[in-house]
Amino acid sequence: MGLNEKPLSTLHEKASYDLADFDVPTGREEAWRFTPLSRLKGLHNGKAEATGQLVVQAWTPSGVSAEWVGREDPRIGRAYVPADRVSAQAYNAFEKALVITVPKEATPEDHIKVELRGGGADGASYGHIVVVVEPLAQAVVVIEHQGSAVYADNIEFVVGDGASLKVVSLQDWEDDAVHVSHHHAQLAKDATFRSFVVTLGGDLVRLSPSVSYTGPGGDADLAGVYFVDAGQHLEHRLLVDHSQPHCKSNVDYRGALQGEDAHAVWIGDVIIRVEAEGTDTYELNRNLILTDGARADSVPNLEILTGEVAGAGHASTSGRLDDEHIFYLQARGIPFDEARRLVIRGFLGQLIERIEIDEIRERVMGAVEAELAR
């Protein structure tokens, strides 16, 4: 297939299934200017051979199906068209796609779990997952990434009329892992989508969540927490494309950084098209820089093409710990190191508490505690 007729936005002008439609990035492009291409291990230029050892397993509750299909399956690529070269490379290189279907009006008692575990960073792996939640159904999906890998993939979330989907995506890779991923949610009329991204591990992780609407009344909430250590590059690039009237979106990502050359990148793009009257949207990114040598780049963008909006705003802050908060706790007899941990824990914990699955929430808080203890 050739170029998609409808550009994603003026900041994401190209969408295509065809790898040849994308030039090899040089780092001068707006979409790639923050990403250290030399650390992608060939995912961006076609030199990454598909010889990686990555195992994908899925556990589904009763009534929910999980099947492996070829790319000729009509459900593949229905909701998402690759928006950059790595995404197109992943789309053209995967062997089998995992399709999970929650049938109409179903409300599974337990969550769906997908585990991806890498066995080494010597070769690359490519993947594709589709989650279909049919009309009026409800589901919770947990996607966990562990081990060591060089991995590029696309995940499609297709949420039907009046359906609800909650997703927790955990990037807990080993220190040498490279992961470039696109998560796209397509919301039908009155659909609800809740996403929570946790990114902790990996040498370089670049995750691009995006949302589009096919009917009015859609409601998307995108939250994320990341902790960046010395030498790590963790990048989150979000796009919410409002093309239907009376839809909502809310974005809230928070990160903490410590150590030399710790680098966090957050890009938040929201476009409100002419036909998207009554849109209500807000995006927020906050970063705590805990040590010298760490760097946070945060760029919120709004493209508003109609004057008939219910609300539209964005905010971004990056800074040190608040001395007043630390002083307040120390004045009550709490030692400095413990006061510091309490402030950071509270900063990230406000979002982490929104994870509804107890075992995942406790695991994430434990991982944050381990980071703070370093």
UniProtKB/TrEMBL annotation:
It comes from Nonomuraea rhodomycinica. This is Fe-S cluster assembly protein SufD. Belongs to the iron-sulfur cluster assembly SufBD family. InterPro entries: Fe-S_cluster_assembly_SufBD, SUF_FeS_clus_asmbl_SufBD_core, SUF_FeS_clus_asmbl_SufBD_sf, SUF_FeS_clus_asmbl_SufD. It holds the Pfam family SUFBD_core. Residues 120-347 form the SUF system FeS cluster assembly SufBD core domain. It comes from the Bacteria. Transmembrane segments: none annotated. GO terms for biological process: iron-sulfur cluster assembly.
